[in-house]
Amino acid sequence: MYTIIDIETTGGNNKSGRITEIAAFLHDGHKMIDKFTSLINPGIPIPPFIKNLTGISDEMVADAPTFEEIASELDRFTANAIFVAHNVNFDYSFIKEEFRRIGRDFKRKTLCTVQLSRASFPGLASYSLGKITRELNIILENAHRAEADAWATVKLFEKIILNESNAGLFDAHIGLPKPEIINSPFITTEFLESIPDECGVVRFYDKDDTLIYIKRSPQILTAISTKLRPNESKDYQQFITDVHRIDFDVTGSALTAQLIEANEMLKHKPKFNHGRFSMKTHFAIFSEKSDEYGEVLVLKRKKEGKNPLMTFGNFYEGLDFIKELGQQQDFEFRPSLFQNRKSPFLKPVNGAAHNLKKALLSSDSYLIIDEASTVNERMLIMVTDGIPTGYGVIDAHAPISASPEDMVQYAFADFPEMEMIVRSYLGKNLYEKVIPLT
Questions:
Q1: What's the pLDDT tens digit per position in 154-170?
Q2: For domain 179-250, which architecture applies?
Q3: pLDDT, tens digit, for every residue of 202-211?
Q4: Which NCBIfam families does the entry link to (predicted)?
Q5: What is the pTM of this model?
Q6: CB-based contact 172:226 (threshold 8 Å)
Q7: What is the pLDDT of residue 50?
Q8: 321 by DSSP, 3-state: which?
Q9: What is the DSSP string of 77-122?
Q10: What pLDDT does 177 receive?
Q11: Strand locations in 275-395, DSSP E?
């Protein structure tokens, strides 16, 4: 059974946004057999942009039920069925977060019609719902309303099911990988069935128990299935030959999963992880000595230097950072250290050169409290002087210890890329709260 779902929301962030409308169709793989639809009072104002996009106004939802009032019915309607949506992580994450707010867990196997469409109808210019429905002659009227979008997704799902080229496609996306393709006593059907399809990290090891691949994912079982899906590449054949053992961590926290992945990639350099880790760090600040200015902090491509003090995803992110730092009395901003190229730098003044790294990094220490794998737990990430130093799972209802370092169960190694991950994540406002440490 499948529940094919679409939601409308007050915004794109599941931490600050709320659901305003939901539509779900129960489908048995052949036909639609039931439906559930409702406007939802989000409890917060609907922004004008969203009102113009969806047509849903504050007045329309004023007398609608809250999510808590429809939660039990939605839970029953979707029970024992695979959760299907177009860009499923968006809809699933919002609904899961709404359940978490009322103290309830919501866990379902998921299936994404965007991913299925890419495999079923390769080569299309776009796989957005509006464009793929036009391409496949599916009627989509009243777009950006939940029932209309969900019904169009039903029709798309049925076309995917009827596509004769899809033999094995559903097994690859929602089924277990076949353990017989790997000659290992440690990877069995029973073991694979024990892996939840939740947010976390999965690791693959060879016969020497060397880490050869690590992957964070909002759905770790799906990530395993995707990685083990047969293909003709030499890389795949070598990977399948080398894999001997799999383990995983369920974090519930996307930030913790990203920090674990980055830390272990930077520490162990697994041979099947191409690139250093999933967040690209093309630019960095380095401490260098120049004949004219003495020791300076220069922004340049990361591959051009050694021992970066701070990393950035792109040039302009780094430029904005050092321009802001250049407004402090200890530094003077200069546009270019080298002739005929972009190499902005900071010249220390007033004796600031004695501790450049300390001047760069935040001196703030704090705890990030993030979601965990159940509603009764929270993930605690400790940040010391701007660098994440470790994490641990805590009781959601227990007070924070006077010695929070005792709550850290796993430590991180010190890499400058780790600071960048936390800096970027905090800017997205996806966490539950931050607790300063004095």
A1: 999 999 888 755 555 55
A2: 3-Layer(aba) Sandwich (3.40)
A3: 999 999 999 9
A4: dnaq
A5: 0.70
A6: yes
A7: 93
A8: helix
A9: HHTTSEEEETTHHHHHHHHHHHHHHTT------EEEHHHHHHHHST
A10: 67
A11: 283-290, 294-301, 310-312, 331-334, 345-348, 366-371, 377-384, 387-395
Strands 32-39 and 19-27: antiparallel
Residue 312 amino acid letter: F
Block residue for tokens 């777009």: 143
Q: Which H/E stretch holds residue 317?
A: helix 315-325
pLDDT of residue 285: 84
Query: DSSP strand E in 101-180: where?
Result: 110-112
d(CA 21, CA 19): 6
Topology annotation, domain 2-170 = Nucleotidyltransferase; domain 5 (3.30.420)
Q: What phi-psi label fits residue 80: left (phi over 0), alpha (psi between -120 and 50 degrees) or beta?
A: left
Interior/surface letters 188-210, b for 16+ CB within 10 angstroms, e for the rest: eeebbeebebbbbbbbbbbeeee
Q: Is the pLDDT of residue 315 over 90?
A: no
Amino acid at 109: K
Structure confidence at residue 329 as a pLDDT band (50, 70, 90) = low
Report the distance separating Cα 83 and Cα 438, nearest Å. 44
Q: What is the rounded distance in angstroms from the CA atom of residue 418 to the CA atom of residue 256?
A: 11
CA atoms of 353 and 301, how far apart (whole Å): 22
Alpha-carbon span 253 to 392, nearest angstrom: 11
Q: Which of 76-80, 110-114, 312-316 has the highest mean pLDDT?
A: 76-80
* Cα separation, 115 vs 113, whole angstroms: 5
Q: What is the pLDDT of residues 38-55, one digit of tens each?
A: 999 999 999 999 999 999
Mean pLDDT of 231-255: 89
Which of left, alpha, beta for 82 (phi over 0: left; psi -120 to 50: alpha)?
beta
